[in-house]
Amino acid sequence: MNLELFIARKVHNGSGKNNMSRPAVIIATTGIALGIAVMLLSVAIVIGFKHQIRDKVIAFGSHIQVSNYDNNQTYETKSITVSDSLLQELRNTPNVRHTQRYATKPGIIKTENDVQGIILKGIDPNFDWEFYRPNIIEGDTITPSKETAEDDFLPPPASKEALISQYLSRLLNLKVGDTFFIYFVQEDGIRARKLTVKGIYCTNFEEYDKQFILADIKQIQQINNWNEQQASGIEILVDDYSKLDETTDKIYFKTAN
Predict the structure, then answer these.
(1) Based on the domain organization, do 24 and 98 belong to the same domain?
(2) Contacts 24+ apart (CB under 8 A), 55-59
(3) pLDDT recorded at residue 130
(4) Quick one: 113 and 154 in the same domain?
(5) 132: domain range?
(6) Which residues lie across from 194 on neighbouring strands?
């Protein structure tokens, strides 16, 4: 006879009119079931929150970034050359969904009453708006210029549109259609750019919302005296996150040289 089953039946069925074991077992079973349900719900909430945070971090920086190999931990980056052929080769890598050039540069916004440090992120016409578009609360996405330089001595024309966060919009009292100046400190002096607010976004991820402004990558290329193929790096999005390490290794060997 199965001893455990025998004892369980005795405890569950009991004997005698005044037996209290059965109600106690029912209460205990119900309590355990509720406890497990609460734990499962808590785990589901934590995993969902983790995925949401991960998706937002990826949206601001992509799954994989290819950039200059140095010890620089700031947003003032050295350039790498990103040719169209390299981008196409990376797009042909298994599990790669999208590639795009990007550039970053620290700057200072000055309005009539406020001053705020920001990071200007330059994007190209191939930028993936999948994350930002649902989070735009006013206005629309910007349209980086697709025009190229007419000759080697003139910089390519750049769009003057900018996408700012709701945090910065409220802090600096900027609305869609307003213009503002961003100042950049260079070794040869201070350079300024006048941009127009095209849209306002809100991701509720304040760590990034209070820093990033999106604009045409050509703005940063002009400020840094870069050509059209120079950028801070390449952002790469993948289809299957579980294969991220494998995809990273393939991209490393393609770009190492």
Answers:
(1) no
(2) 55/131, 56/131, 56/203, 56/205, 56/208, 58/237, 59/131, 59/132, 59/203
(3) 87
(4) yes
(5) 64-255
(6) 181
**Which of 152, 93, 151, 156 lies closest to 122, judged by CA?**
156
59 occurs within a structural domain = no
Give Rg (Cα) of the chain: 28
**Does one domain contain both 241 and 187?**
yes
Taking CA atoms, 99 is separated from 84, 111, 199, 238, in Å, by 11, 35, 23, 9
Kindly state whether residues 31 and 85 are assigned to the same domain. no
CB under 8 Å to 146, separation ≥6 — which residues? 125
The SS3 assignment for 129 reads coil
Residue 202 and residue 198: Cα distance in Å, rounded?
14
pLDDT tier, 186 (very low <50, low <70, confident <90, very high otherwise): confident
Instruction: Note whether 116 and 164 are same-domain residues.
Output: yes
For residue 73, is pLDDT > 80? Answer: no
**Does residue 242 have a pLDDT over 90?**
no
Count the domains in the chain. Answer: 2
Report residue 80 as tokens. Answer: 């790498």
Mean of the per-residue pLDDT values of the chain: 83
Q: Residue 163: count other Cβ atoms within 10 Å of its Cβ.
A: 23
pLDDT for 16 beyond 60: no
93-116: pLDDT as tens digits: 999 999 999 999 999 998 878 889
